[in-house]
Amino acid sequence: MDPDVQDAEASDELGTQDAEGSEEPGAQEPESGKKGFFARLFGDDEETGDESDQGEDEEASAVQPKAAAAGKTLEQPEENGKSARKNAAGGAEAKKDEDPRQKKRDAERSDSLEESIIYWQGSDNILTSLEDTKKTLVEVMGLNSSFDVVFREMTFGGQRAALLCISGFAKDIIIDEILKRLTYLTPENISADVLASFMGEYIPHIQVEKGDVLSESITKVLSGMSVFFLEGETEVIIMDTRSYPSRNPDEPSIERVVRGARDGFTETLLSNIALVRRRVRDPGLKFEMHQVGRRTRTDVCVAYIDDIVDKTQVKAVTDKIKDVNIDGIPLADKQLEEAIVGGGWNPYPLVRYSERPDVVASHLLEGRVVIFVDTSPSVMVLPTTFFDLCQHAEENRQTPFMGTYLRWVRFIGIFASMFLLPLWMLLVIHPELKPPMLEFIGPQKMAKIPLLAQFLLVELGVDLLRMAAVHTPTPLGSAMGLIAAILVGDIAVQTGLFVNEVVLYMAVASIGMFATPSYELGLANRTVRLVLLLAVAAFQVQGFMIGTTLLVILLTTNRSYNSSYMWPFIPFNAKAMGEIIIRQPVLNSKTRPSFNKTRDNTRMPPVQEKKNKS
């Protein structure tokens, strides 16, 4: 035989042998490979006793490219090629299905981070091996799939270490400074206790602590901290290197004042606490941190002054926060309020919201409990009363006389927002009830639309205008107001669809609603106005009286953390009611509100009082 032909056959035999992957020893492999190759090449149906049909299919798929490269022609039906490709795809899917980790991922039904960690590594402890820890982080935390999760492996002084952090939260300057110092380490610098050496001597940072639970460490990483893992150690080093994206503490748009501070709360919990701590430099001011939500792990802070507040009330609040079992509170304070305060379908707010640090500091000095929720600029103050929700910081920024005047004007506006329209409609339906001085009340001519329908349409129009103003850019807000006031209102009156007085009184009631300091209270009063309108239209005088009575009963039976909602009117406290009606000078308010059940009820000690008298 020609030597060139022998070389070609030998190379074909070797290629077939590699693709075939047979387990038969030494001398039998070339012979079986040669038979399988020529059987496929020349259409021979003879099969060897040791080869299966699956092995022949694999030989054909592996040999065909080599035969084409050698310039040989292989005649095989097109259907066989398609079936081979289909078998290859099916084999890949079967291989994926046989992956034990993928099967374990599909079978996981963990409800919390702790359960997920225990599911993957058997315990919630820190593993001594960095490779095992990395595998757990891949499954639990999304390492290698989430681009912002950083797991930087390094070696310092012969000691393997890894830094885990979130790139968007970590402060680069602090981490760079720590890593720069650690790069100078040598094996001689590291003592037997590696963790103590790293923490005490070589990490130049203030807020550093140890951790021995993996779930807690991961939660702190997700909140912005950085964690150092050390090879062979069952503890980690947790460093507070977080830097949240935040805005400046600008004045809140809802609680603006002419005189006073211009700072307000933001969405960052730490800065909000600092604003309050700046105003109340009392060592008794406590900030207890909790976390709510199995998935969101939202930070919730309960603030109070330890020697003033009612400890029973603090315990009741903290217990309810700890009992909240929900996957998360992404809407922050409002969802937490529904979880711990309740209220159901009650339209009236049972807590007070504020975005001003000075208002929150004043409530803390009165013995209230304050709840901060991370990612929310609003702070909850509880317990609260109906009259607390009617007060504004501007009243205390003016003289007592002007503060009292502003408070009365605000009370009149709140009263008008609730009762002006129902009373006017009642007097129109029953003109005999009007006193002689109010004979001018009532429409001079009737419109094409019934009176009740006019009120309902105007109510819906005002609410629609308010919602549109929230979603309208500021430069376009004035134009939208002109369109609503001039075009819609004026044309509706001129065409005879509405009565002039309906639009006038509705505007006055809306102004009273917008003048209400608490946005939630304004919306609740608007709902009461609608109910009273329907009651007057249906039952006239009886409807108004019954509706008003039910409103008083609702407000009386409301409880804000076991405190009367209508205090000091119900139960009546003459001194406290006088301080609400008339804004008292600062030095005249010598005691704290009694409904809080404070431990220290005095604002000024008796010694200071005697000095002032002298």
UniProtKB/TrEMBL annotation:
| TM region(s), chain numbering | 408-429, 475-493, 502-519, 531-556
- Which biological process annotations from GO are given for this protein? spore germination
Query: Would you tell me the Gene Ontology cellular component terms?
Result: membrane
For region Disordered, the annotated ranges are 1-110, 590-614
Q: Acidic residues composition bias: which ranges?
A: 1-12, 44-60
Alphabetical keyword list: Membrane, Transmembrane, Transmembrane helix
Report the family membership.
Answer: Belongs to the GerABKA family.
Q: What is this protein called?
A: Spore germination protein
Q: Which species does this protein come from? A: Paenibacillus sonchi
